Amino acid sequence: MKYIITIILTLNAFFFLRGQNIPNGDFENWRVRDHFKLPGVTSTVKNAERTLDAKEGQYALKLSNTYVPNSRGYRSYAINYDGVDFNGEPLSMCFWSKYNLAQGDTARVYAVFREKGVYKGKVDFRFTGSSNDEWLRYSVPIEWSSSRTADSIWIYLYSYADYGVDGDGFVIFDDIHFTNLNERQEDILNHGFEDWENIGVNYPAGWRSVDLISYEQYYSFLYEPTVLNITNSDIFMGSSSLLIKNAYSNSNGNLRYGYCYLGTENNDYYTPHFPIDTFKYLQGYYKYLPDGDDTARINLRSWSKGRYSSNDNFYLSSANEWTFFAFPINYYTSTLPPDSAGIIFYSGKTDSVRGPNSSLYLDNIELVMQPKSLGINSLDENASIYPNPFSISITIESTENNTVDIYNTLGKQLTTYEIIQGKNTLHLASLPSGIYYLKTRNQSWIKKVIKH
Fold it and tell me: Residues near 195 by Cβ (< 8 Å), separated by ≥ 6?
């Protein structure tokens, strides 16, 4: 059964009695599925990794082969398509390597030297077998076409040299440098593979996202992330909120909706994941910016001794500001109380994708016996506040005399002002930059403001 019950208000959740029954339902705790990549280098997502098994320094680059029957398997490479700056007149390209390649597989080092864009020379070196768990130093002569001068180098490193791989294996590279009669030349940028950037998947602790599934199951990233940690002025309260959005899944322009669900494994999408008692409502805060006629959806399922107790779909319509929602839960298959539940959020219609920009913001999701709304009137009927954002002071034009308390995002009351009917100026230069909430004592309105 579908319900659309939306109660619009912009009240911070610290004014409600919170229930911590949905794990990390306030989305304050986040994790990163690490994936380290060399800056400026194009590499395979799978089988190109940072390793502590290094000859020099702390890290080295490891490229692996993974055999897969009836296919070319997974191979690996790291390529600097933009080149790196270099000055000198080297005779040899040198590097350290440790490797254990399957019989029939070949690793390859390929480098091209240019001066002002003109080809000057190259290295094309291949090796096979195993280094027997020892680091070996290679010094490969450079094939110069004319003078031994270059201002840039393009380096290509491969764990393979042929179309497919014949078995599992790896090759590790470290300390790529250049020599002239054993005299070391000026080092190139990141020659020892010490500098890496973490481009891993960010996700709420205890939740899984389509981004995380794509990475762990298919060893690839979506073209754009669909689940993001919001920490800027778009948050509702605390230090972060959840954003789920439609996005392009690949460079071909294919669109998909985003989703996020409670769980630590892929099959938690379909199975109970956290224990619950009998609650009558699901409530929380959301903001939804649809692309066209898109609609966001929440799927809440509960079980009683392994049998479905509820399976409700709740739909969220457009809302440009943070909005309170409360949906009744329909228990229908058992007289026994529910003992476990699962929950899934979708950024768009799952039968088709309307557009790339549908964005669903969520915060403070919980299960309750009764919605904890205070029935507060909208701000526009009682006061006008400007400028917002502000830097020194704000003006409140009020329709009534009132007392205004100012809170930070942690719910701590900072100061109090008495306002009268008409125009009031609040001098707030002493407050640090950030997000604050103005709330009246008679609970006629509350407003989020931002200080630069």
Answer: 38, 39
